[in-house]
């Protein structure tokens, strides 16, 4: 039995989504998004909840949640930085951005600051190659980055 449950609002959203997706397996991704929106990440407990709610096996939910890198499987910082490490961004200076983030926040990719304000990870292409180097910060994209710009962005966060 799982401890997780949807908020009242997300329970309504879930029921609305069910009307749009007659095949219950197609509900998997939007349901995982709802969990992540609600909690900031997707716990094993929440996966059990979804498995039961969708009538699927826990392995089914786990395999999807762990396949897509956009799903967070552990708590992240208030500000979660995803810096692109793929070729276009590398060629256009993402390494200098990475060094600036490490220097400013005192954390390496895969880590979270002790106050849980920032977490940082390197990811594959964000689809913004034309404006490399790029990163996402929670749901917002930042492009054409340079060390000065990243410093200003980080300094501007409360
Ligand atoms: S290579 Fe960085 S956004 Fe595509």
State the helix count: 7
Write down the oligomeric state: single chain
**Radius of gyration, CA atoms, in whole angstroms:** 18 Å
Average pLDDT value?
Answer: 95
Largest sheet: 5 strands, mixed
**Net shape:** elongated
**Under the CATH scheme, which class of the largest domain?**
Alpha Beta
Q: What is the end-to-end distance? A: 38 Å
Across the major sheet, the strand order is 2-3-1-4-5
Spans where pLDDT lies below 50 across 5 or more residues: none
Can you describe what's shown?
By secondary structure, the chain is α+β, with helices and mostly antiparallel strands. It is built from 7 helices and 5 strands; from the N terminus they run ααααβααββββα. The protein has helices at 8-20, 28-39, 44-54, 58-67, 87-91, 94-105, 147-155; strands at 79-84, 111-112, 118-123, 135-137, 140-142. Strands 2-3-1-4-5 form a 5-stranded mixed β-sheet, covered by helices on one side. A hairpin with a 5-residue loop joins β2 (111-112) and β3 (118-123). FE2/S2 (inorganic) cluster binds at residues 84, 86-89, 125-129, 132, 134.
What's this model, at a glance?
This protein is an alpha+beta fold and 158 residues long.
Secondary structure elements and pairings:
Elements: H1 8-20, H2 28-39, H3 44-54, H4 58-67, E1 79-84, H5 87-91, H6 94-105, E2 111-112, E3 118-123, E4 135-137, E5 140-142, H7 147-155
Parallel strand pairs: 1-3
Antiparallel strand pairs: 1-4, 2-3, 4-5
Helix pairs in contact: 1-2, 2-3, 3-4, 6-7
Bound molecules: FE2/S2 (inorganic) cluster (FES).
């Amino acid at each position: 039995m799982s401890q997780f449950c949807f908020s009242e609002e997300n329970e309504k959203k879930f029921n609305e989504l069910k009307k749009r997706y007659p095949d219950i397996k197609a509900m998997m991704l939007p349901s995982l998004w709802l969990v992540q929106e609600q909690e900031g990440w997707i716990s094993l407990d929440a996966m059990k909840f979804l498995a039961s709610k969708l009538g699927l096996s826990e392995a089914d939910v786990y395999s999807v949640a762990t396949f897509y890198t956009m799903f967070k499987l552990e708590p992240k910082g208030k500000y979660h930085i995803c810096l692109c490490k793929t070729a276009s961004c590398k060629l256009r200076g993402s390494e200098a951005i990475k060094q600036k983030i490490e220097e400013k926040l005192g954390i390496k990719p895969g880590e979270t600051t002790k106050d849980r304000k920032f977490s940082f990870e390197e990811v594959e292409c964000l689809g913004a190659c034309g404006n490399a180097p790029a990163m996402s910060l929670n749901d917002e994209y930042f492009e054409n980055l340079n060390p000065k710009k990243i410093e200003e962005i980080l300094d501007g966060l409360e």
